[in-house]
From TrEMBL:
<comment type="similarity">
    <text>Belongs to the arginase family. Agmatinase subfamily.</text>
</comment>
<dbReference type="InterPro" id="IPR023696">
    <property type="entry name" value="Ureohydrolase_dom_sf"/>
</dbReference>
<dbReference type="GO" id="GO:0008783">
    <property type="term" value="F:agmatinase activity"/>
</dbReference>
<dbReference type="InterPro" id="IPR006035">
    <property type="entry name" value="Ureohydrolase"/>
</dbReference>
<dbReference type="InterPro" id="IPR020855">
    <property type="entry name" value="Ureohydrolase_Mn_BS"/>
</dbReference>
<dbReference type="InterPro" id="IPR005925">
    <property type="entry name" value="Agmatinase-rel"/>
</dbReference>
<keyword id="KW-0479">Metal-binding</keyword>
<keyword id="KW-0378">Hydrolase</keyword>
<dbReference type="Pfam" id="PF00491">
    <property type="entry name" value="Arginase"/>
</dbReference>
<protein>
    <submittedName>
        <fullName>Agmatinase</fullName>
        <ecNumber>3.5.3.11</ecNumber>
    </submittedName>
</protein>
Amino acid sequence: MNDAKTETHGYATGRLNLPFVGISTFGKRPYVEDWSRIDADVAVLGAPFDFGTQFRSGARFGPRAVREASTLFSFGHAGAYDHEDDCTYLPAAVRIVDLGDADIVHTDTVRSHANIKAGVNAILDAGAFPVVIGGDHSVNIPCIDAFEGRGDIHILQIDAHLDFVDERHGVRYGHGNPMRRAAEKPYVTGLTQVGIRNVSSTAKEGYEDARRMGSDILSVRQMRALGAKAVIDRIPAGARVYVTLDIDGFCPSIAPGTGTPSHGGFLYYEVLEMLQALARRNEVVGIDLVEVAPDYDPTGGTSILAAQILLNFLGFVFEARGRKPAA
């Protein structure tokens, strides 16, 4: 019998449902197949697209790996208590659902991106907070496209690479292009690009174009000199912020499972503290986390890091929403 209400010697006899049991939806939250019936605060969408890569592919398996890793944190159905903040994050009142993956048509970037955009549109139309798990960084392009007509946004990018290439050998929608495509949108009012370092995929002219088009570019060392809060304070007050987080923004010593690793990246708490400061200061409207390529990390640590940072960030966002008075 699987009656959770029956007790024996003070213990419930229903399903224990440990992390390694059952279906690997994100955080083992409910699966919603019908995108016209989304009724949730947060909706997770997989975007297993990696045709835009210029070196090692494999990020198409990122959504599946991050979902599986997220089951490690599936105990917290009543929320996760943080003794440092004396706060319970993600209580049961924050409803999270998993929509599965956008359909990817092999070798067809245009149709695949259109399907990702359709998923993000469905989430936004339902009034939910979009969480998109890539896939390579080009999946950010349809994510930002979905915000057209929904008000101005500012983008916070945490990444090793600027991703501001305009066009290379005819390619405009690969993983080196998304921030350039975003900056071209009239409703994207600016970009804060943090963690940019070392040998980049963007030439000097791209950096000049980025600054001219409204980018604030900071390296890892510059972020450390300023501190997390001071970096976030550079974002315009009152801006609605969309976050795009490339896992290679982290140091490959803790996140080797990515296609274009770059040494000298962030450690966990540096990114966590920026995201917490952002949630407390600005309205956050969505996030994509990209470039997890699990086959390059047999330990699974990169996927666990991705799942952990997403769940903590969602906790920060909804805790901050609860603290702010209703308009």
